[in-house]
């Protein structure tokens, strides 16, 4: 046994970067909502980017460690303590067996990710360790964590072990030690209002001119009926110039569909594979972490981006991630 | 419990494909304008071809009624030497592929028999469907189970088939208030459609029976009993046969 769940938090699930290859039989991709935070958390403990992490929502769990471990926390800014002493996010932390890692409420953002060296050990189901809540499979028995659950880590790779040993040495007799280097996070919303870019959707031109204008000029608010499946927004109703019956087809994460009531929905990680509502736009992959960290009541301002720029930024971010990985390895003396 | 039969579906020469971006990591390939057998066959042939010839950077493809959507990784498709837009490269690859699919290409399809225990506690709305359409219960069962249905696509829920071909005599509006929970395996009618709830879910369809077969089983290789392109026929069974029925396929 590696850790034990004392209290589970609001919605804590095992996630990775997603389950691909089965959308053609109706299986949602799932995976972490903020994939960038999943990837960075994994990088900080020397994992593969696709290793399984815990996703915490709004209120995090309390966890008792039965083993010395190397961990990292990324994403939303939660109140976090180890044995009642504050811990900072976005860095590698070595934690001694017997310690209690306690997450409070999210101060900023909505979701945080807890990575452990080696990744969490749950079975691979159809190529992924992500929890599919609706289908009841993947993750830990296809459900959210509950009090009393136990989670085990997979065996860490050599870089993870190197990093853990280094931090353990510095810890001395202390219950934990956090690295003095970190990766700044940049996707969190300040002042409750986010700017989110949008690529025009297939039916963009079918919306009235007034609707297209309000879409980019007015603000939309995240409704409380938002979850891992989709973000329902409230704001100026978006109207088509004429009603259209669309033939259902594949939808992706970030698809902004508009049902007949005119209130847009941004489809997220647990979206259905097929949808039939008009698509006014798509949130580009690069901006999805911003949406994933929005909480009910917060506002979105949409701004247009071309497909070309969206893909260009994605490629740039990939180079940035590779540079971070290298930076970590150089900083700790692995290279 | 169920049987497979293989037949040949002849390939058609595919005319022009229409490509459009689905966000920054997908291409939607449109193969027709309406839901019909001909478009469906194009969708299946193209899907099949992609399965057999995935290109580097391709993640997966999803067949729809008139479309095949191809998900790709923009990073893999980016070449710093030519700076071609990853989307444009994906379209170029798909365009080239479309020319490879010739009229000689054909696909075998399966006929899957699905046993259904109609009525009783398994089909609480069977009578509603009969009454609404001025049919006897036996007529409803007979019409429903003699039709050969086509699986246009799988979606909505894991393993949930969109079936085409229901007899219009069975068309029944959805329930005015949807049920909060419909058991897995329930066979229902909603308007002109019929289908099977592959997992327990809320829903508004009129439930006429239930199959002991599992339509979806989370697993490694083929988690779904049905695939787009399969044909389906329902076979009425008794409650006793249901109880003895194989739960897994």
UniProtKB/TrEMBL annotation, chain A:
Keywords: ATP-binding, Hydrolase, Nucleotide-binding, Transferase. Pfam families: CT_A_B. InterPro entries: CT_A_B (IPR003778), Cyclophilin-like_dom_sf (IPR029000), PxpC (IPR052708). This is Biotin-dependent carboxyltransferase family protein. It comes from Brevibacillus antibioticus. One of its GO terms (molecular function) is ATP binding. It comes from the Bacteria. Residues 24-320 form the Carboxyltransferase domain.
UniProtKB/TrEMBL annotation, chain B:
It holds the Pfam family CT_C_D. Keywords: ATP-binding, Hydrolase, Nucleotide-binding. GO terms for molecular function: 5-oxoprolinase (ATP-hydrolyzing) activity; ATP binding. It comes from the Bacteria. Transmembrane segments: none annotated. Its EC number is 3.5.2.9. Residues 17-226 form the Carboxyltransferase domain. Gene3D superfamilies: 3.30.1360.40, Cyclophilin-like. PANTHER family: 5-OXOPROLINASE SUBUNIT B. This is 5-oxoprolinase subunit PxpB. It comes from Brevibacillus antibioticus. The gene is pxpB.
